[in-house]
Amino acid sequence: MSHAHHHHHGNKLGWAVFVNILLSVAQVIGGILSGSLSLVADALHNLSDAGALIIALVAQKVAKKPASLSLTYGYQRAEIIGALINSATLIVVGIYLLFEAISRFINPEPIDGWIVVWLAALALVVDLITAFITYAAGAKTSLNIRAAFIHNVSDAAASVAVIVAGTLIILYQWYVVDLIATVMISAYVIYHGLALSKSSIKILMQATPDNLDIQEIKVFLEAQDNVKAVSHLHVWQLNEHEYILEAQVVVDSLADQSTLSHLKNILYQEFNLSHTTLELTEELARAEACFEIT
């Protein structure tokens, strides 16, 4: 993707941040005037959307910095850290809204349904436009951008819930639906926050990727010609798309110079492992310091 293309998306996301902040201010004022907690909840979620987009943009920019002697892998995990920060804010916002809903249930207040509906409808339009911009900026290929995108989508869903709540308040004076909508928004936000946090933490903890079976890779390698055993096998992710493997491979003979290149080629073909470090030896090392697949 060209620098101009990234800059183009950056400008769009910048406008999305600005619009979300203005909308959040309008919703907070409207929530206070109308007495609607769900509208304030939607406003806080919108504000977290703006923060999510800012974090995503900064992380994306940092991730492009070149590697150095002190950071030999570069800054590629900056986007994963950005995704983790965004998912954590989702969880915090969701928990805060649950506490507010409980407090409002204990001390109920009258609500102006019309203010709720009109502001929530405006928020829905802005949320959908922002979600579209964020998706186009790379939500498919970047966990970092996807975290910001989920912020937007969940906020659009929250706006729909607020519109429904406001309508029921206008028609039937069912004030309790405002609290129900708040709880639904909170649960939805926390759910996605936990899912994104789990994905980010697994990468940062160098866990084996979900789509790879480390035992399957071991058996596959040991089935190759000239290979006797595989030990000290580790597979982890540098970022969302780059997998790294290292292993000690015991071979029948080190004289076969083609073994190393052959193993690397088949690992790429079968498991899409493009970055592999293999130590070939004719004697099985007895190192106990490393975890060994048996």
In brief, what are we looking at here?
The protein has helices at 3-34, 37-63, 78-106, 113-136, 143-172, 176-204, 214-222, 258-271, and strands at residues 227-237, 243-251, 275-281. The protein has 294 residues and is mainly α.
Keywords:
mainly alpha; Alpha-lytic protease prodomain-like; Alpha-Beta Plaits; 2 domains; 3-stranded mixed β-sheet; elongated; disordered N terminus; Cation_efflux_TM; ion transport; transmembrane helix; transmembrane
Shape: elongated
Outline the biggest β-sheet: 3 strands, mixed
**What is the CATH T-level topology of the largest domain?**
Alpha-lytic protease prodomain-like
Number of helices: 8
Domain Cation efflux protein transmembrane: 16-205
Membrane topology: Multi-pass membrane protein
InterPro entries: Cation_efflux (IPR002524), Cation_efflux_CTD (IPR027470), Cation_efflux_CTD_sf (IPR036837), Cation_efflux_TM (IPR058533), Cation_efflux_TMD_sf (IPR027469), CDF/SLC30A (IPR050681)
Domain Cation efflux protein cytoplasmic: 209-278
